[in-house]
Design goal:
The chain has about 100 residues and is an all-alpha fold. The chain has helices spanning about 1-20, 30-40, 45-70, 75-80.
């Protein structure tokens, strides 16, 4: 299930990239100075609204799919169980004293 959702996320990302790249920038700059004549002649006024709605829709779809993907994510089996270190029930035995050399006379 995670694979299907991941593919859908990638497709939505491609759509979002396409919608963003097709939009005309709203700022001035060089594209505004040279490209504004074509938009005045063609009379395209509603395309920016459609592109903006497409941007928000695809962004929202990506966010929802990411949240759904996290819900279906499976942890590896060795990580599902909390590992606790094993504790010995018997106390540790004290070390035997080192043999001492007889006193030199």
């Amino acid at each position: 299930m995670t694979t299907i959702i991941t593919v859908l996320i990638l497709l939505a990302c491609a759509v979002l990239a396409f919608v963003i790249l097709v939009q005309n920038p709203k700022g001035g700059g060089l594209s505004g100075a040279f490209g504004s004549i074509g938009s005045q002649v063609m009379g395209v006024k509603q395309s920016t609204d459609v592109m903006e709605k497409g941007t928000w829709l695809s962004m929202g779809l990506i966010a929802v799919l990411c949240i759904i993907c996290v819900k279906f994510y499976d942890l590896p089996r060795d990580r599902q169980q909390v590992r606790q270190p094993q504790q010995n029930s018997a106390p540790a035995q004290p070390a035997a004293p080192a043999p001492t050399a007889p006193p030199a006379q």
